[in-house]
Amino acid sequence: xxxxxxxxxxxxxxxxxxxxxxxxxxxxxxxxxxxxxxxxxxxxxxxxxxxxxxxxxxxxxxxxxxxxxxxxxxxxxxxxxxxxxxxxxxxxxxxxxxxxxxxxxxxxxxxxxxxxxxxxxxxxxxxxxxxxxxxxxxxxxxxxxxxxxxxxxxxxxxxxxxxxxxxxxxxxxxxxxxxx
Length: 180
What we know:
The chain is an all-alpha fold. It is 72% helix and 0% strand. It has helices at 2-26, 35-54, 65-84, 94-119, 128-147, 158-175. The longest helix is centred in the middle third of the chain and has 26 residues, at 94-119. The model has no long low-confidence stretch (mean pLDDT 94).
């Protein structure tokens, strides 16, 4: 499993670097986004991935990697919003946002390692398209939980769904050999 841990770290390093660069360019303007807005941004990215996987003709010469990175970073933003709440004005500098990013990734990676141990790295035998479908399913669940005002009866909360989407996206990027 050390290979998975290293590959995970390599993918996240690329995502984190982009997050920091965008924070430097745009600041924390994303802090004004309510959770459903972030969920919708993730949904758009997941839908685009599915379209790219299904369509034979592409009008824009891009693959899914940028969209999976976007899912990872938007999910981390959503986890931060869950913890800190929405604000009216950007309030995080690059240093603090990066600390929060690292904190959320650490928790999410630990979850991945625990599940990966229990499932025996079954994801390595999956298709990237199946991971995309799982992300879309998680998004529909999150939307339903949001519509239920965050209440669940027996299900995991919104945070667990965002963490799973991060991990599925990392797995997809590893399977696509993006980190190499």
